[in-house]
Amino acid sequence: MRSMMCMDEVLSLRSRYVISAIHEDDAIVKSMEKSGKTVVKLNLGDPAVYFQTPQYIVNAFTKALQQGMTHYSDPVGLSRLRHAVSERQRRLYRLDSDIDDIIITQGVSEAIMLTNSILVNPRDSGVLFRPYYPQYLPSLEFCMGKGILGDYDEESGWSADIEGLRKRLRAGKRMKYLIVNNPNNPTGSVMERSLLREIAELAKDYGLVLISDEIYDEIVYNGAHFTSISEVAKGIPYIILNGASKVFSATGFRIGFAIVPGSDSVSLSIKSRLRAMSTLRLSASTPAEYAVAEGILNEHEHEISVSRMTTEIARRINNASRLINESEYMHTVLPRGAFYLFPKLDMKRLKFENDREFEQKLLKEEAVHITRGSGFGIADHIRIVALAPEYVMASAIDRINRFCRKHSKR
Amino acid sequence: MRSMMCMDEVLSLRSRYVISAIHEDDAIVKSMEKSGKTVVKLNLGDPAVYFQTPQYIVNAFTKALQQGMTHYSDPVGLSRLRHAVSERQRRLYRLDSDIDDIIITQGVSEAIMLTNSILVNPRDSGVLFRPYYPQYLPSLEFCMGKGILGDYDEESGWSADIEGLRKRLRAGKRMKYLIVNNPNNPTGSVMERSLLREIAELAKDYGLVLISDEIYDEIVYNGAHFTSISEVAKGIPYIILNGASKVFSATGFRIGFAIVPGSDSVSLSIKSRLRAMSTLRLSASTPAEYAVAEGILNEHEHEISVSRMTTEIARRINNASRLINESEYMHTVLPRGAFYLFPKLDMKRLKFENDREFEQKLLKEEAVHITRGSGFGIADHIRIVALAPEYVMASAIDRINRFCRKHSKR
Questions:
Q1: With a CB-CB cutoff of 8 Å, which residues 33-72 of chain B face chain A?
Q2: Can you tell me the distance from the alpha carbon of B67 to that of B65, in angstroms, rounded to the nearest whole number?
Q3: B254 contacts chain A (CB < 8 A)
Q4: Are residues B69 and B46 in the same domain?
Q5: Which of A31, A65, A136 to mutate to test the interface with B (most CBs of B within 10 A)?
């Protein structure tokens, strides 16, 4: 009998490494705010803070609530929404899918967790490129899997280094999937069709399920053209992740989609297990599902909202990029999608041990909250969310420059 | 290199056993409905289908939406809602808690999954009584843990058999927690305070974290008095799970609470790891959090709604219990909380292999969908959700009786 418990005995191993880098300094922010400070938060990619969720979507949500749509929905999602998602993928990417190919999740984060949970046994591997979205690796490790890391190459505008990755895959580990995020968080890169083809080829060669997180698909600019994985992945099993958070500026709705269009035996098994697994958490938010269905189906309203938002995001990103590239202490590749900047810090000129120290001191000294690049797997970088209005971004970048000068080696 | 994948290679082991018994026959229901049949669904405990979510809560939800509360909230939940939950527990159970003791989750199901994930390593055990809520065991197994099963004893009105369980705990396995669900799904039992004290004592003796799922706490009747675990668990770490789904008739909102009031080192670690883990899925539904905060804080409106609903549930439960106990083929203990009936089938008189066959044939032949008892860990029983109006329940029980007569051995 144990009458006393020690903490290390009680907690699981997995609980020790699981935290999102984006939120790890929230406690510092809260205590600063408690003492009256205003913190400029450039850490969280939340468009709904700056771009109102379109009124027609809010109205559809309200209508569903007032009509009593407050019960559980089908664990795999409302059929009306699954129909809408299927139609959306057909319209945008000529994908032929069925509502049975689609599972509605509580945000893409749940879709990532569910996907890992049905694929990954202890000691299996998932393949991902760094910098990666900070949830990918913890969700894989949560299922006791390990990451095999390829690289996006900054010199070539954050293009994926396929040959470099191929060499690492020869090790013969139990590899389950390859995940890409396109348009990319944090780099803002948008993959060329030819590159996506190579990635699909790689997945085929190694028998990997290909997962494409396309949550920013309609937020592209600066001449980029987005290609969905469904346009190039022929004859291999793949999963598309998407949702309402970014393109519909509705992060707080918590609605994501997992789409598995294949009819090969692997795709069928994945669908079947995602369906089974989804019963464990009963359903997504029912009235939010009605709202997002309307968000998709009212193409006219959506087109107006998303193009207005994307134009404005492009303006903010381009301005902020220019200001950053005028700095002596950092440099960024110009993004072509999503709403993040991922500048490299000139650490030789700065008196910091690492980007973690940079993040925490910047927060404490200048009340600017960004996220360390090492949280995305790449040292000596920072991620800046560039959604705030121009004057906020300009002032924040000023403060970062002042901070760098103060901690400069010269 | 693998150019072909076989299904067993691709899927994780955990994905094979994870499905909720409540939903496992959904595909049959869908195909019956497609062919024009009306299915009486008594499988899902969803009060919002029968009892409208109170209008004042729906209005608060609408207001939050119209005011633009559609962004992410804090991963641990909106402070307004955590304040409200803290006040609620103080008012109902004199629990002294702080907002830092509370995490808002996407339904209690997410709270169960998070709790398992921070506590359970592979080969660790969780202790639960059967019949158990069908999500408890898969969530534990999902984290590669094993269940140690105690029993609720039907003969004594589904009271927990503490001495029986104590014998099983002597085996010396790595035991992490003991979970109880009070009021109970599926039995409808409400634990006496003295019994809860014994359970707290047991948890203390074996160094187990005590988890109490109190989602039905305000839905008690037939003279029952509900005791929260916080009223008896002194000096041991414990977690209370609760949420908006049942008491506020708002299942489709997906809002749950995990409350960890202790200030001992184990409770502090649990809180800290729940907070960290919560960052991985960003947040719960923000406008729903505002709605549930109002649901709790407007005590007057809540009191009216919950007492009206509970009175009606008691009437439906008592009527359905009477009808079931008039049957020659089944018998139920009279519930005192929640809204389920868990009758024992007289299998000696029936030509069925098991309750799984009973469930599927009843669905196909009489279009009545109930859940097999074995899904809750107890053979030869069925769970009936008794939320539907009297005439629906009466007709369904008639059909079950007709079905039993048809498949009777005599």
A1: 44, 46, 48-49, 52-53, 58, 61-62, 65-66, 68-72
A2: 5
A3: yes
A4: no
A5: A65
A158 and A73 part of one domain = yes
Is A1 within a domain? no
- The answer to whether position B3 is within a domain reads no
Angstroms from A138 CA to nearest CA on chain B: 8
Question: Does residue A248 share a domain with residue A209?
Answer: yes
Chain B, residues 278-297, CB within 8 A of chain A, namely 279-288
Q: Does some domain include residue A171? A: yes
Given an 8 Å threshold on Cβ–Cβ distance, is B12 in contact with A52? no
B122 and B36 assigned to the same domain: no
Contact B3 A142 (CB under 8 A): no
Asked which of A298, A317, A337 is the last residue of a domain, the reply is A298
Same domain membership, residue B327 and residue B282: no
Inform me whether the C-beta atom of residue A171 falls under 8 Å from chain B C-beta atoms: no
Closest-CA distance, A410 to chain B, in angstroms, reads 38
| B201–A contact, CB cutoff 8 A | no
- Say what the pTM is: 0.95
Contact B106 A109 (CB under 8 A): no
CA distance B249 to A353: 53
Per-residue pLDDT of chain B (410 residues; tens, 9 = 90+): 344 444 557 888 888 767 788 888 999 999 999 999 999 999 999 999 999 999 999 999 999 999 999 999 999 999 999 999 999 999 999 999 999 999 999 999 999 999 999 999 988 999 999 999 999 998 998 888 999 999 999 999 999 999 999 998 875 568 999 999 999 999 999 999 999 999 999 999 999 999 999 999 999 999 999 999 999 998 899 999 999 999 999 999 999 999 999 999 999 999 999 999 999 999 999 999 999 999 999 999 999 999 999 999 999 999 999 999 999 999 999 999 999 999 999 999 999 999 999 999 999 999 999 999 999 999 999 999 999 999 999 999 999 999 999 999 87
Q: Domain of B286: which CATH number?
A: 3.40.640.10
Disruptive mutation site among A34, A279, A371, A387 for chain B (greatest number of B CBs within 10 Å): A279
User: Are B203 and A5 a contacting pair, CB within 8 Å?
Assistant: no
Taking the C-alpha atoms of residue B182 and residue B196, their distance in angstroms, rounded to an integer, is: 10
Structure tokens at B81: 């809602």
Total of domains in chain B: 2
State percent of chain A over pLDDT 90.
89
SS (H, E, C) B109-152: HHHHHHHHHHHCCCCCEEEEEECCCCCHHHHHHHCCCEEEEEEE
Which pair of tokens denotes residue A167?
A: 């060499």
Domain boundary at A277, A298, A319, which? A298
| Same domain as B47, residue B62 | no
pLDDT at B107: 96
Using an 8 Å Cβ cutoff, are A292 and A81 in contact? Answer: yes
Strand, helix or coil for residue A228:
coil
* Residue in B49, B70, B122 nearest the CB of A48: B70
The partner residues of A104 in beta bridges, in order of sequence, read: A257
Residues on chain B touching A243 (C-beta within 8 angstroms): none
Query: Would you tell me which residues 258-277 of chain A have a C-beta closer than 8 angstroms to some C-beta of chain B?
Result: 265-266, 269-270, 273, 276-277
Kindly report the nearest CA distance between residue A140 and chain B, in angstroms: 12
Secondary structure of A290-346 in the HEC alphabet?
A: HHHHHHHHCHHHHHHHHHHHHHHHHHHHHHHHHHHHHCCCEECCCCCECCEECCEEC
